[in-house]
Design a protein that fits this description.
This protein has 206 residues and is an alpha/beta fold. The chain is built from ten helices and four strands; from the N terminus they run αβαβαβαβαααααα. A four-stranded parallel beta sheet has the order 1-2-3-4. The longest helix is centred in the C-terminal third of the chain and has 15 residues. The chain is globular and about 45 Å long. The C terminus is likely disordered.
Amino acid sequence: MVLNHQDDIEVVAEAGNGVEAIQVVFDHRPDVVLMDIRMPEMDGLEATSRIIAEADWEVRVLILTTFDPDEYVYRALRAGASGFVLKDIPPEELVGAVRSVADGGALLAPSITRRLIGKFADRLAVDTATSGRLERLTDREREVVVAVAGGASNAEISEQLFIGAATVKSHVSNILTKLGLRDRAQVVIFAYESGLVEAGDHDIGH
């Protein structure tokens, strides 16, 4: 109801479980999928993985989660989801989240990003193949990756590194291309799994 009241958003289908979700996504080819994690028959993690892997168009998945983040959310981000929001998000913020993801942005709710990363990043062994991909980046691009992992927006990165906003946007685009990543959400995951950033290094969110 909230989304359908927006002039620029159309809800084309709804589904009650992961199996139905996959079916309606491929029937209707939406730009954005709002995906619950816990559903009968197939959970949102598996459904997200299949949709991202099999879609032949640019579809973005936004995960809905409860306040207490769990490993499923982390794994969903790794599978290609563009972010997650809380189920109790105010209606106007949900609308903004859908627009942001549709526009190619990534959404990591600040209030739980730190808990999510802190809870699982310290369990991750640094992957040597992943860390080897750091060599593709310039020193400045590595600084931008660290800032993105810290939850900084482009405007904040611009201030932190004393570079123009357009330059930041260019760096982020180059990073995604060089590392073969979909969006900022995957940059955060990469930063931890490559060992560039360690859990506890940064106070993410507030």
